[in-house]
Structure prediction request, 394 residues.
Amino acid sequence: MVLAGAMAALVNLTGHAQAEPQAAYASADIASCPFVSQLLSQREGYGREAIGGAGGRVVVVTSAADSGPGTLREALRNTNGPTWIRFASDMTIALHSQLRVPSNVSIDGRGHQVKLLDYGLGIYGSANVIVTHLTIDGELRTFSQAVNIANGSRNVWIDHLDLSRFADRLLNVKNGSTDVTVSWVKFHDDDKVMLLNNITSEDLFKNYERDAIARVTLHHNWFVNTVQRNPRAQFGTFHLYNNLLENWDFYGMSFSLDAKATVEGNIFSNTSQRSCTEPPYFPTVEGINASYCSYIAKAPARTTLVNGESDRERYEKTNPLYHYTHDYRASLTVRDNLYLGKAKAVIDDYNPQNVPKPPYFYTYERPTESLAQRIREEAGNVQREQGAPSKCTR
Prediction:
């Protein structure tokens, strides 16, 4: 039962409840906390240094209200140092506005089915954030994002989320943010799914120095019944491996504007003859009601856009004004991707010598139909146990 209106339970990482909400909270060795160490052992990619709220206190959300005592919003507003946020029970939280996630925080939904409706999470100028095992459904009611990582955020790990139906995007990494990993997330029933950096000026490279620092890893994510931007990537350095893309209506991935990307071991599956699962239209911030069902017949041949195609026309139009020294295309290392159904390869290596090798070990798997099935089963807010270990022992 959700205890609406109750104070969130405050626990230090030795597992003992705190009698006074304002008391000091002792820290424990990360390795001595099973529910912490179990999760941290799964980190990979550019966001592998994120430890979230490890070493601080545990706050247990007890209320499914939008705000007030015991709520997720209250827990985020009153972190006062590293905080690991957990949930007392299954709950659906209808949000009235976006939740802001500060630095040194974990939002850990393991063990319960936790769903956020209408709004999602804003990670702005924050460092050291982990978000895992949540469902975030925009219901196409607000012009917002499920997860917006922006304004110089860094060391962020987004893991095992189920994200759908936002009128803007499901996930952004932009405005000087870097060192982000997105893993085992299910992206579905959405139009413009993911933007890794974005153009904010007629001069396409005006913010290049700020945004080229972006380093993002995407692995074992499931993109299904989407339209486009799975992802759309510009400027930064990106590593995409072992992701599954199925049944996009317009195109799969896009790379452009001097991005540097390793695209390996991904699985693309689509067919030109299938029913359209889009709503009658997707609302847009431009006020245009968009539908892409008519593109399905050609979608399998667009596993990606041609390298740079998303920005080539604008580049050519504005180049005489700004005399660009950067390429409208991305430097690409492309290998070992699997194409199923009528899906076809589009991109190939382009200036691969410019693409940095991933500076970390990672659990790469050969792309097969069995891997695709495992991603379908395990990506998203999948609860495979009745709660992760809840206490710490020394």
